[in-house]
Amino acid sequence: MVNFRYHIISLIAVFLALAIGVLMGSAVIDKAVVETLEDQQEDIAGRVDEVIAENDGLRASVTELEQRARRLSDEAGQLLAGSLEDVPVVVLAMRGVPPERVDDLEALLASAGVEAEGTLWFTERLALTSDEQRRDLARVLGRSEVLPADVLRGIAVNEVADALVVPGPLDGADGEPGGDPGDGGQGAEPVVPPVEEAPAPDLAVSSFVELR
Fold first, then answer.
1. Which of 32, 116, 140, 158 is the 20 to 30 A CA-CA neighbour of 71?
2. Cα separation of 194 and 88, whole Å?
3. pTM for this one?
């Protein structure tokens, strides 16, 4: 007959075996988890090193490009110095272009000796991203509102370009070259009017262009 002490010892052995199994299993699982985490950490560290190296390369490229741009700007200023003396110039720019780029261009033109007449900015409205903008431009130009946006935009730009250039002082009233017959029939170069005498005032009023 099995006594009570035997049952107690058997139960203790079972629970002890269970505890040992749990401990061994958790140790194996923990080791696998640790190894996985270590592998992931090494992978992340490798990627970080690659990104750092790539950023260093990009910074070096940017520095080189900036230095090259400065050299080209200096050389351009020297090459153009005085080459456009008293030539009237209007700068055309699109809103969205960094203003400092336009300032750099104006400084370069100034070094060439141009007679700066100002800057004409085409605004974001000229992108005609909405039907309302397209209809507004069509009304300003006196054109059909069913015309496509790119057609209306081209007409507007052409009208601005035509209005910016007026006959020179030696041109005849009919636009034919005038001046001395001995000059081979060549008239004066077209004259760019000051921006304050701007072309297409309706475009300015409707905020498609801005004058500066």
1. 116
2. 8
3. 0.47
